[in-house]
Structure prediction request, 172 residues.
Amino acid sequence: MLDAIHGNGGSISVPPEVAHATCQLADEAAQRTVAILRSGVIPSGDQAALPAALLLEIAALSTLIDWEERGDFEHLGEAAPDIDVLKQDFLNGCCEGFESFDDPKHTPISNLMIKLFTENFAMEAPARLNAKLVMTQLDEENFIEELAEFLWANRHSLANNERGASTHGKEE
Prediction:
């Protein structure tokens, strides 16, 4: 599991929750990318050598589209990107040929997706609640009401988690 990010300037440790959420996000994006490529981009049984930056951009764009379709962008407010503009930017890069994807560090859609993920999504939600949460900016007056609605809507799942946690580790 990922426990640190290493770079030229050193490394920083990564909390387990962030590592788990990042790995889960990467796995889901990789699965979507493979599905897209298998949907007719690359004929079945054929192999292709595609630039890493192209694959990163496909994964990021498909993730952003998934978030938009799931309704997550509603909670992002002004931070929500315009998917149509991103699609057009991606297609423009594709029309320029693989040369536009030569530099794996030049992945603007991927960078945007990672920024949105780290700044707006609850990292521990997938592991602890089996849910994907987008954190919206709430005022204090609405916080308690929003929290109560969330807990009520998920009361059965939370009760099942509590029953499992209360028996975990006890000898029978």
Q: What stands out?
A: The radius of gyration is 20 Å. Residues 13-135 form one domain.
